Amino acid sequence: MSTNTQNNKNEDEIDLGSLFVIIGKGFSRLFNFIGNIFKGIFYFFIEVLIFIKDNVIKIGIAGLVGLIAGIFIEVKSDDAYGSELLVEPNFNSALQLYNNVNFYNDLVKQKDTATLAKVFNLSKEYAASLKEFSIEPLKVDIDKINAYNDLILSVDTLTIKSYEFEDFKKSFTDYDYKVHKISVVATKNDVFNKLDDVIISSVVNNKYFNRLKKLTNENLNRTDSLYRQNLEQIDSLRRVYMRVMIEEAKKQSTGTSIDLGGEKRTTKELELFDANRRINSDLKSITEAKSKKYEVINVISNFQEIGYEIKGVTKNYAFLLFLLGVGTMIGFLLLAKLNKYLDNYK
Fold first, then answer.
1. What is the rounded CA–CA span in Å between residue 120 and residue 127?
2. Phi and psi dihedrals of 72, rounded to 5?
């Protein structure tokens, strides 16, 4: 019996010893793996330094050539100026606005100065100064929330339950944002105030959008008029109730009080007050809608009369061509090194 117990004890000790050995090997491999990662990073860093040291003259010459070329272009090129126009399109006119702005930019790319001069009523000199047109939305998350809320209020509740907000966000495009920024780059700083009227009118003069604007405003005016008539009727009813209450108060003062249903009358008063409050709230919403829907495109901020000068390292040709020269030389040297390695590998 004691022999069996001793054997079991020895086996347990052997098992524990094996377990510790396995754990020790696991930690050893883990630390070796981490060490190899750091060794690899260090080795790569050293290789990069050696590569730069061996080719510093070639890389420097390439960078210098790019820098000189960039400085030459900077001296020869005209200063660039920019300006922005902020607009709020209505009646789903954003797509048309984007198409028009892209059309103007295509004319710039094609250097079609004659068409630009005709479209914007500019001299050829000013038309030639236009270098870029672009448009982008001012992306605000609240626009998505408001649009989803409007959708919920406009459709059946059972239908919207199967359409989650995340799905709605995926279908929300740049055209669906409220405010959009039109940017123009030119070599003359006083050309911008001649552009905004043309850009806006290119959409505003569209017959379809004008018809939508007219019908929408007529509907809003009609609704506004009906609500105001309802307010007058409610005020008339309230005056009637007030006269009744005054008459009853007089009767009470003379001792001939007759209750004509005071509790019911009080309820009617509260109902009239609540109806008055709701109609005033609706009138406020209609007024806001009329102010926003009065035009096909609401101009929030016009182009500045004098554009700002475009500066910055990323716009500097000397810096950009310096990087291009250095990058090109490094790429060429790496390809040469790879080619040499492949030749030796054979």
1. 8
2. -60, -45
pLDDT, tens only, 64-73: 888 888 777 7
Structure tokens at 66: 């790019």
Dihedral sign of CA atoms 186, 189, 191, 197 in order: positive
Are 282 and 227 in contact by the 8 Å Cβ rule? The answer is yes
Beta bridge partners of residue 86, listed in sequence order? 181, 301
Whether the CB-CB separation of 88 and 179 falls below 8 Å is answered with yes
Radius of gyration of the chain measured on its C-alpha atoms: 39
Q: How far apart are CA 99 and CA 83, in angstroms?
A: 19
Q: Where are the beta strands (DSSP E) in 153-280?
A: 180-186
Ordered by start, the domain boundaries in the chain are 2-76+320-339, 212-293
Beta-bridge partners for 84: 183
Rounded distance between C-alpha atoms, residue 48 and residue 61, angstroms: 19
Q: How far apart are CA 111 and CA 100, in angstroms?
A: 17
Q: What are the residues whose beta carbons fall under 8 Å from the beta carbon of 193, sequence distance 6 or more?
A: 302, 303, 304, 305
- Beta strands 180-186 and 81-89 are antiparallel
Cβ-contact 134, 105 below 8 angstroms: yes
List pLDDT tens digits, range 200-223: 998 888 888 888 888 888 888 888
